[in-house]
Structure prediction request, 215 residues.
Amino acid sequence: MNQLLITILLLFSICVDAQRVDKPVVLSHYVFNEFTKGLVKVKSGETYSQTLNYNILTGEMIFYQDEKYMAIQKPENVDTVYIDGRKFIPADNKFYELLANTSAPLLVEYTYSVNEPGTSTGYGSTTRTTAASSFKSVINTGGAYDLKLPDDFKVIPGYSYLIFKEGKYQKANSAKQLYKIFPGKKNSIDDLVKKNHTSFTKREDMVMLVKAIES
Prediction:
């Protein structure tokens, strides 16, 4: 029992107290619309059940426990996080979602941009520099863990497809990028994209395409 407690303390760290929310909010800076029951499997073999979500602003896997939000402190000790039938693996000090566990795995890196209105200078104009500084303070003070960000900050979620090959993560958001990852398969890629009407914005199309390229 003591060993289990030590393992948990090493793996997780408290980030911020949870706020009580009286009405539903849109979690624009999280992957899922709500915190969901999931599993954290660590490389030593243990599995922990947690209520989880992925924070795209901080690149951390967050879980809710004892009315607190907590983050995985050492993602390098994690093998896989399972949320709602989806898999996330640690990489580059963040987590990528694993879409296809092929010989060259297909993953998604979650990104974001922030639409900031700026701060008034008092002369009928605004400055984005002040707003950007304010946004950094939201992250540094733990505000990014809250369910709702300040009204001035509008987070626009984004993503990028990656393929892990030859020991590195490579962008895979277009046919042109796939040519570089799979040299010698340009004609095959073009034929597959044309035949299946592949959309590079649909994850199911990307999974089918990568599996077909490797078959």
Remarks:
- The longest strand covers residues 154-165.
- Helices lie at 2-11, 128-140, 175-181, 186-196, 203-214.
